């Protein structure tokens, strides 16, 4: 191998390395150029513009990009978005209109930099790209110009025109200001607030304000005069309508009183005839009702006796059935207890016999083994001892295993026996419960027909029935607790016996524990049976309670009906006695027959009593009675004066009215039925005394002569 052969690969490898290094350097340079361009190239949106200076010229671009070289160029951002600012003129500086009325006004102007390249360059050169869109700059530039435009346009309109023609006012403002504002553009204007300047803020020393005050005063005064004229016309019209309505009401009231009096007279005649016929029919209907009631009471009495007899028979049958069923249950329970004791005794004997037999077999095996071992030579003494120990251990294990098997068998047998006894007790309790429910259903069906009549008796004896039910429930709880206590005592006794037997041997220990478990299950089963029996007795108590309540309710209804009959009979006897005593000393001319005479007597008595009750229960009627029947005219005058004051009537206004017209007017003003009834009675009594047509002034004059004349008229 020559040197040229070795140098060729080395040269090729060096050349490749140089090329790779050159490519890497070129890539890094390109990345640097791209990063520099990206950093220097700035892009803005349509609401901004870039103002670039340098190299002797100014460039502006918006919504696009521009390359900025940091050392060569300088740039600023210009805000092209729409700006708004308000011009407010209020109080003494308010806008003066054409009619010299001053107005408070607020106008918002919406302005922005024009987006054309020449306008943006002009604004940037004169104001600056950053300052041109600041509100303070805009206010400094345009506040005076816009205020002057407001004053110029405002002087062209009256205040009312200014208020009614806002759009025209705004258009005139835009026309005066123009849209081209040295690089800025005014897009729109809005009137935010426009009201008349208050009078207290106007200066009387100002010529324009004085003219405005004069015009405002003239306009408001004219409007006040018109308003006052309208108000007075309205009052006159209302007063005229009130007078006409009052006259119409008085005329209608007079017609109403005449019609009411005529109607009362006709109603009184018709009522008298109809009441006589109605009383006759009423008494006939009452006679029929009394006959029907007496017949119904007779039937109720017969039904009540039959019901009591049926209830008594049902009670006797229930008591007989309960006694037979209780005797059968006791007999079955005693037989089951005897059989259970017999089975337990036989099992105990068999268990003892098996244990003794096993013990004898074990002893026989031991004796045979000892006899065989005695024949072994003395040299094998050590082996014999070892074998004897092993055999003794094995025999011990066999004995323990056999005893455990016996104990487990006995435990299983006792458990099965206790389970069978438990199931038997549950079946017996279920049987008792089903029979009790059947008897309860039968008792409910037998007593359903008479339940409504028996509710009164049940209410009277509900307390006794509830007490008896609580006693029965307490007895059941006591039996349940007694059974639980007995089971607990026997359980503890069995555990104590098991602990005593435990000291004898392991097999006897398991046997005793099995016996204790069996006894525990047995007595738990007995306690469960006693509890279910108590629940069954509660069912019987519920049926008995319902039956007793039913019986008590029947007795109460019976006593109430009897008491009502006795009360009616006593009332009738008393009424008959009163009528008899009243007729003893009466001189009677009998006219009419067929009970008409008795009807007339009762009607006359009732009418007299009704009049007496009205006279003595109504204060107004009592006053009239004292006046017209006792002759106290002064007292009647005082009472009538008091009633006039109660209705707020003017004495001078009613003195020319007759007594009947005065009472009729008070009836129209009364707001309660009781007051109207009293005034109607008062009017009737005044008519009966022949003073209804006399003027009220005779009664309210106050002189003794008038009192004497009135008393003479009353007489």
UniProtKB/TrEMBL annotation:
The gene is yqiK. It is found in: Endomembrane system. CDD domains: SPFH_flotillin (cd03399). The chain crosses the membrane at residues 15-37. One of its GO terms (cellular component) is plasma membrane. Gene3D superfamilies: Band 7 domain. This is Inner membrane protein YqiK. Residues 243-300, 348-437 form a coiled coil. Its main location: membrane. SUPFAM superfamilies: Band 7/SPFH domain. It comes from Stieleria maiorica. Keywords: Coiled coil, Membrane, Transmembrane, Transmembrane helix.
């Amino acid at each position: 191998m020559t040197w040229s052969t070795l140098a060729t690969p080395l040269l090729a490898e060096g050349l490749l390395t140089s090329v790779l290094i050159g490519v890497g350097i070129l890539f890094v340079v390109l990345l640097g150029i791209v990063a520099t361009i990206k950093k220097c190239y700035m892009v803005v949106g349509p609401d901004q513009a870039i103002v670039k200076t340098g190299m002797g010229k100014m460039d502006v671009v918006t919504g696009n990009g521009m390359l900025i070289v940091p050392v060569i160029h300088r740039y600023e951002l210009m805000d092209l978005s729409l700006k708004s600012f308000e011009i407010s003129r209020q109080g003494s500086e308010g806008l003066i209109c054409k009619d010299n009325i001053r107005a408070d006004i607020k106008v918002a102007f919406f302005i922005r930099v024009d987006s054309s390249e020449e306008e943006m360059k002009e604004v940037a050169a004169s104001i600056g790209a950053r300052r041109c869109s600041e509100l303070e700059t805009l206010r400094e530039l345009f506040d005076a110009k816009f205020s002057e435009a407001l004053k110029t346009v405002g002087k062209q309109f009256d205040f009312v025109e200014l208020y009614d023609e806002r759009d025209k006012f705004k258009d005139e403002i835009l026309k005066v200001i123009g849209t081209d504002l040295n690089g800025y553009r005014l897009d729109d204007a809005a009137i935010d607030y426009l009201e008349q300047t208050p009078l207290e803020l106007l200066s009387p020393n100002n010529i324009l304000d004085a003219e405005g005050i004069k015009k405002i005063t003239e306009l408001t005064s004219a409007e006040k005069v018109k308003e006052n004229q309208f108000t007075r016309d309205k009052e006159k019209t209302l007063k005229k309508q009130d007078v006409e309505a009052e006259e119409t009401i008085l005329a209608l009231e007079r017609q109403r009183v005449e019609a009411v009096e005529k109607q009362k007279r006709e109603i009184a005649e018709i009522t008298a005839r109809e009441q006589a016929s109605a009383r006759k029919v009423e008494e006939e209907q009452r006679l029929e009702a009394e006959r029907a009631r007496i017949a119904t009471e007779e039937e109720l009495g017969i039904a009540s006796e039959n019901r009591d007899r049926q209830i008594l028979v049902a009670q006797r049958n229930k008591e007989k059935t309960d006694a037979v069923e209780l005797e059968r249950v006791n007999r079955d329970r005693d037989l089951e207890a005897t059989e259970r004791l017999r089975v337990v005794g036989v099992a105990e004997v068999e268990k003892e016999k098996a244990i003794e037999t096993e013990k004898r077999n074990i002893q026989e095996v031991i004796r045979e083994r000892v006899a065989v071992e005695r024949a072994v030579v003395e040299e094998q003494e050590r082996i014999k001892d070892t074998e004897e120990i092993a055999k003794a251990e094995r025999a011990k294990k066999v004995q323990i295993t056999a005893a455990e098997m016996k104990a487990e068998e006995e435990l299983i047998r006792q458990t099965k026996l206790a389970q069978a006894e438990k199931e038997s007790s549950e079946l017996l309790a279920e049987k008792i419960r089903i029979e009790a429910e059947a008897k309860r259903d039968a008792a409910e069906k037998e007593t359903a027909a008479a339940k409504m009549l028996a509710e009164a008796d049940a209410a009277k004896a509900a307390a006794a029935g509830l007490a008896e039910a609580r006693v029965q429930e307490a007895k059941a709880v006591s039996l349940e607790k007694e059974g639980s206590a007995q089971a607990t005592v026997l359980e503890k006794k069995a555990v104590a016996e098991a602990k005593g037997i435990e000291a004898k041997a392991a097999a006897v220990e398991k046997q005793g524990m099995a016996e204790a478990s069996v006894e525990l299950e047995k007595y738990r089963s007995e306690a469960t049976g006693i509890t279910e029996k108590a629940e069954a007795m509660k069912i019987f108590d519920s049926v008995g309670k319902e039956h007793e309540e039913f019986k008590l309710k029947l007795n109460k209804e019976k006593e109430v009906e009897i008491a009502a009959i006795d009360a009616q009979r006593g009332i009738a006897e008393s009424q008959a006695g009163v009528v008899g005593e009243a007729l003893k000393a009466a001189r009677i001319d009998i006219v009419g027959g067929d009970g008409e005479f008795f009807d007339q007597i009762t009607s006359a008595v009732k009418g007299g009593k009704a009049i007496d009750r009205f006279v003595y229960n109504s204060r107004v009627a009592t006053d009239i009675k004292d006046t017209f029947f006792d002759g106290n005219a002064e007292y009647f005058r005082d009472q009538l004066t008091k009633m006039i004051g109660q209705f707020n009537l003017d004495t001078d206004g009613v003195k020319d009215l007759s007594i009947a017209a005065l009472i009729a007017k008070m009836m129209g003003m009364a707001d309660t039925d009781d007051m109207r009834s009293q005034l109607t009675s008062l009017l009737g009594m005044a008519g009966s005394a022949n003073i209804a047509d006399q003027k009220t002034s005779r009664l309210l004059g106050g002189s003794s002569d008038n009192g004497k004349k009135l008393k003479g008229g009353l007489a």
